[in-house]
Amino acid sequence: MPDHAPHLSPDEFRVLGHRMVDFVADYMGSVSMWPVKSQDNPGDVLTRLPESPPEVGLGASESPADAWGEVFDDLTRIILPGLTHWQHPAFFGYFPCNASGPAILGELLSAGLGVQGMLWQTSPACTELEMRMLDWMAEAFGLPACFRSDARDNGPDAPPTGGGVIQGSASEATLVALIAARQRWRRLQHERVRAHENNTGEIGLAVEAVGRQFAVICSEGAHSSVIKAAMMAGIAEGPDDDERVWQIATDSRGRMDIAHLRSVLEERAADPARPTPIACVATVGTTGVGAVDNIAEIAAVLRGSNIWLHIDAAWAGSAMVCPEYRAMIASIERADSVCINPHKWLLTNFDCDLFWTRSRHDLTDAMSITPEYLRNEASESGTVTDYRDWQLPLGRRFRSLKLWFVLRHYGLDGLRAHIREGVRLAEMVERFVKYDDRFELVVPRSLSLVCFRVVGPDDLTTRVIDRVNATGKAFLSHATWPGPGGAPRPIARLAIGGTHTREEHVRAVWILIQQATDELR
Ligand code: PLP
């Protein structure tokens, strides 16, 4: 039994680290040789893994660096076959999940520094680099000044009101927005009650706020994470709770139907017996078809209501690095919060969701709690940002490093080139679909997402997708879209924008789609 744990020495780590970097570089260079979608069946990876952990580890051997050879063998034997290769250039499913060399180096460094950035004091660089990166990205996307960390909506000498933070995912960002929305509703309610009491001397109005039921508004095209967030926040009772999640119909292009939003609000919000709407989540780039809700019109309907407007731009938001796509977010200054995932389409490894708010105190009021062991002078002084109060967990990784490296390596010019190439390739596919009468474009292309169906019986599109995916040479995913009678029909989604995707890969998948269609028709 060793009397101390067998740590890797810095030199042993160096040897293995170089080897691991070689492994990753080889993987990047050879990923296109793998079938895109894992060919494993359920349980296959489990059967390749031992049932119990090793009692004596490789670190106990004479030369751990040599002994680790078996780990590298196992990576190739056990893990790689069980991967769906998201970085494969012919991965066109869901939305891309961009990894890139600079971001991978940022991840390595983050792990190597081993920092836990819950408070400013626990690593000032972790907090302040993140603040600066969120301001850089706000500028890169053309976001209004109210979302910057130095925004002071209440006057130049008042505390800052805006700012951004890295969340793990857009789902977390939505949950945080709902929690902040509820907090703001309560704050405004208390202010109203206090004003009433002061003006009239009457007390008792506060009872109105007790046991209040809340509701969240989104469109039928919004991501399921909105309903999930409402469930987790204790607002909705379950996924089908349409009394507390008001799903607004979508128009012929998949956007929130403004007339329906207006009528739902008029009918329900006026009824005191119904839950109070506290938040509306608008989507810029829906998951199914990439539809972009009209922020200006939604904000106009919500005006004066105190409903928190959160913009979920998880995928499409990255395109705003290009000024020509910023029309999508016109009127975003009227939103209370917005999120964008560089981990989808902006060359920054998962996990990296950027979340901005113009109302940081509603977040921190809802999520700040300070037990004695977290008290410190810097936090008490009120001059620093403690990001633990802007998110669900206490602990946090040093995620801004990877974003910093991405920005320094690619520059905004390089990021714009990546986005524009994705859109250019999607325009090419759009033309392929339009000029081939075997296919039908169901909605207009959205940025780098093309949604189409195969002309013929509804299941033909699904069968074509399955056949293409079974070749292992490409991967597509599906969604549904209303057919002529309004019933949902399957559609194919070709989501372009992978780090390594080039024109040749897009042309090749189109040939596969044509071949599968001819074989199945
Ligand atoms: N919102 C939209 C519009 C999405 O497309 C997605 C995922 O594709 C999400 C939210 C969820 O993203 P995340 O995995 O970051 O929670």
Automatic annotation (TrEMBL):
Keywords: Decarboxylase, Lyase, Pyridoxal phosphate. It is an enzyme of class 4 (lyase). One of its GO terms (biological process) is amino acid metabolic process. GO terms for molecular function: aromatic-L-amino-acid decarboxylase activity; pyridoxal phosphate binding. Its EC number is 4.1.1.28. Gene3D superfamilies: Aspartate Aminotransferase, domain 1, dopa decarboxylase, N-terminal domain, Type I PLP-dependent aspartate aminotransferase-like (Major domain). Its cofactor is pyridoxal 5'-phosphate. InterPro entries: Aromatic_deC (IPR010977), PyrdxlP-dep_de-COase (IPR002129), PyrdxlP-dep_Trfase (IPR015424), PyrdxlP-dep_Trfase_major (IPR015421), PyrdxlP-dep_Trfase_small (IPR015422), Pyridoxal-P_BS (IPR021115). It holds the Pfam family Pyridoxal_deC. One of its GO terms (cellular component) is cytoplasm. Belongs to the group II decarboxylase family. This is Aromatic-L-amino-acid decarboxylase. It comes from hydrothermal vent metagenome.
